[in-house]
Request: fold
Amino acid sequence: MTEAFKDKAVATDSSDPVVVKILDDDYSAGLFVPDNLKEFPSLKQVYLAIENAKVTYGINDKAIDNLVARQITGQLVAFAEGKLPIDGGSAKLIWNVGAADGQPPVDISDQVSGKANNTALFGRVSKGQQILTKMPATEGEEGITVFGASKASSGSDIEIPKGEGTYLSKDGLTLLAANAGIAAWSGADITVSAVKHIKGSVDSSTGDVKVEGSVYIEKDVRAGFRVEAVGDIFIGGNVEGADVYSRSGNVVVRNGIIGQSRARILAGNRILAGFIQDATIGAKLDVETGRYIFNSAVTAGRYILALKREGLVRGGTQFAGKKIEIRTAGNEARIETELKVGFTLPDSELKAHSDLRSEQRRNRMELAYVQKRIQFLTLLKQNKNTLAEDKEAQLVELTKKEKVLLAESQVQAKKESELTSEATDTSDPGEVESIRIHDKLHQGVSLFIGDVGTTVKKDQANIMFFRVGESIKFGTLNRALRKT
Reply:
């Protein structure tokens, strides 16, 4: 008897005189003769085995003759080769907004198809302007298996994410603006909305900005100013030590947030920024950065993502309802970094948590300064056995201040616990709450899932943390997913 095996393990204990093995997704085949046979199979038996296995295409008679002539046993001998298909090219979606201003087109094909993380894109468009062009998929060249069957391999198609304020050309390959406004893409449909347009920065020349719809700011939001909108807020430059608040939309910052320990950015939907530094951030859904998050208090109802370029989170507290997924956490200097997941914040508590994070951050910074001054004056007193009268008074006042700050820290911790216990999880109950580090997790980083926490004792890489009962489990991604 003969048998066509579909697995890759050669059946060396088979009693069949000849085993036909099908490989490479039906595009090649081999012959195997066990070495425990009393008599080597004849050429006729070999061809009978091939016939029974229904291999008809690409047969190499010389390879079969050589197998029988040399009586090769115990190893696989290739004897048939099909014709591999040539893959067709997949469809591509090219974002063209900004080309007139010298910005290069952006291929968003992988983002639309879910193969890559989203990049927030936006820009001014006029009525009828081209936003997106589609390069259709191309057909591949058919292949032929060793069974003589044809297999085609066409490229995959992608639908254009057409949204409000847009329309397709007659051939369905170009997305156009139905009206003048801001064309925006942040992972869902591409939309064009009429928004307030500020040509330049929000500064002393404009004053604070408050709009009922959405707003597009070409350049920066300067320190000390406030931008408030019901809808989306698009910022073409940086946010400095300013307040930016979107009641029900997204906040998208093309460059980054240089918070100067004063910035507070809140959004009723998502916040996307090139980087985040020295700021307090709060979003009902997700916070995503293209590069890094430094020394910031970030709260997201669903996800915190930092997966592009450095993807580094260092310093401060990152809090997400469901998932934190980043490339690197912490650093060699063990700067205090906390990663927390556990619940989705209701609308009523987003601002409360954001305010609390800001208070905690100010308290930590002031406490660190006070403790350094106490340490300096104490060492000075030890070295000289005395202190000048004014410095002695400073030491007394600083010690009192330290006690006050430590007490405030305890009150804030209690308040955080109360807010956590009052929160209601409204997100997908089937999703595992997790923290995933793609590259490096440095020693000293603190991790919390719900009310269970741990501190990393040694550097680790490509690791995922999740909760089982009252403990945090971890491992490589595949192992971690198996455990869940």
Q: What stands out?
A: Residues 351-422 form a domain with the Helix Hairpins fold (CATH 1.10.287). Residues 83 and 425 are 54 Å apart (CA to CA). The longest helix spans residues 347-384. The radius of gyration is 32 Å.
